[in-house]
Amino acid sequence: MYTVDLDSMKEKIEFFSRIGATGNGGITRYSLSPEAHQARDEFVRRMKAIGAQIETDDLANIYATLPGSEPGLKRFAMGSHVDSVKCGGNYDGILGVMGAMSVLETIAKNNIPHRHPLTAIVWTNEEGSEFTPSMIGSGVVTGQFKKDDMMKVRSMLDPEKTFGDALKASPYLGEEKNRLTPERYQGEIELHIEQGPILENAGNEIGVVVCVLGMINYRIRFHGQACHAGTFPMDMRHDALHAAARVLCEIHERIDDLERPELVYTTGEIFCHPNVHTVVPDDVEFSIDSRHEDPKVLEEVLKIIKSYDGKEIVGCECEVKEDWCRDTVYFDRHLVDCVQESVSGLGFKNQKINSGAGHDSQYVAHIIPTAMVFVPSVKGLSHCEEEYTPAEQCADGASVLLNAILKADKD
Ligand SMILES: [Zn+2]
Questions:
Q1: In the structure, what pLDDT confidence band is assigned to residue 265 with cuts at 50, 70 and 90?
Q2: pLDDT of 120-158, one tens digit each?
Q3: Does the N terminus or the C terminus of the chain have fewer Cβ atoms within 10 A?
Q4: 191 C-alpha to center of ligand 1: Å?
């Protein structure tokens, strides 16, 4: 078994944490921003230094490849993203890139034999912080999104600017022929932080990821009547926010009553019109997002949500609309075994785990065999400045990635 160098991982964490630093321990590094380009430049500089060949595709995804010993074999890839959410942490995404770099550096430095070419990838716009949806880079390459649609997506910061404009301005815009395809790539493994508390609570050091959970995403809207908050009698009102509040609590209680283990659900967004304290709201909408491995469980949740469609709640009409949904994506059994053998060989305490969060790998899994490795997130925190994983565990995760890739390379 091989291990990556801890000091080199520490140095990388410190280095990349400075790019886009907020001053409060985290980073803001939107995709294709000057900060993200700085991180990309550094990735390319370091990969060139070990003799990797650099390619970029028409989504500005970057591929750094070390040749293998047997010409003509397909590549094995490792990768993640360098972009972050607003005021995000120093590990989400970038750990997978640092891990992939560490793997290639360790292989180059120690002349570790490998048959296949090995590629470290930086995926463009995983977070979708400035350009929604998330995972545009991997989504287009794997056929989940139409490129033309994505090019028209507008910036949340500057409505004049599209994702296509940002791509054209990027020095990393390359050619379509360089995309990850099943013809050129045999498999991919992504190292990532867990972003939840399961590994930490169980006292485990590594998660062998089996699937990315299926999810449903709905919007529930209430149509009422706006009127003066001071003059209009209570019993004549059609208060859309009151209706929404009732239904929101009721839905949450009814989902709880299902008593399905590992089922999660969230209302994270509410729009209230006109959102003025002297006006009874006439139009309110909230989101509901629910995730579980078993589609039958999500079907039960859906039944609850849909039961409100067309109903009148405190004088307001309720409308239920699907926003978007995805099925559970299972990772490749053989590559998951390679990860498991690697973890067991290195002697880390581990468990099989599901991913509740979306990752580039869930799209990559649609076109080539794919797997993921998780390391614990302290207190389960992620997408915040407190996000933290000790450097030792980051290096351990990269060592798992290294040995898993070398096992996969034997086929
Ligand atoms: Zn991520």
A1: very high
A2: 999 999 999 999 999 999 999 999 999 999 999 999 999
A3: N
A4: 10
Model confidence at 71, pLDDT cuts 50, 70, 90, reads confident
Q: Give me the CATH code for the 214-326 domain, please.
A: 3.30.70.360
All CATH 3.40.630.10 domain ranges in the chain, comma separated: 6-213+328-409
* DSSP code of residue 132: S
What's the gap in Å between 369 CA and the centre of ligand 1? Answer: 19
Q: Report CA(144)–ligand 1 centroid distance (Å).
A: 18
The dihedral sign for the CA sequence 191, 192, 198, 199: positive
How much distance in Å is there from the Cα of 71 to the middle of ligand 1?
33
Look at residue 220 in the predicted model and tell me its pLDDT. Answer: 98
Cα-to-centroid distance, 317 and ligand 1 (Å): 38
Q: How far is the CA of 196 from the centre of ligand 1 (A)?
A: 12
Residues of the chain with CATH 3.30.70.360: 214-326
Q: Are 237 and 225 in contact (CB under 8 A)?
A: yes
Instruction: Report CA(164)–ligand 1 centroid distance (Å).
Output: 22
Whole-number Å distance between alpha carbons of 215 and 217? 7
As a CATH number, domain 6-213+328-409 is 3.40.630.10
Distance 383 CA to ligand 1 centre (A): 9
- Nearest CA among 356, 315, 98, 104 for reference residue 213: 356
Residue 322 has pLDDT above 90, yes or no: yes
Q: Ligand 1 centroid vs 95 CA: distance in angstroms?
A: 9
Q: Tokens 């979708």 sit at which residue?
A: 128
CA separation for the pair 198, 351 (Å, rounded): 10
User: pTM of the entire structure?
Assistant: 0.92
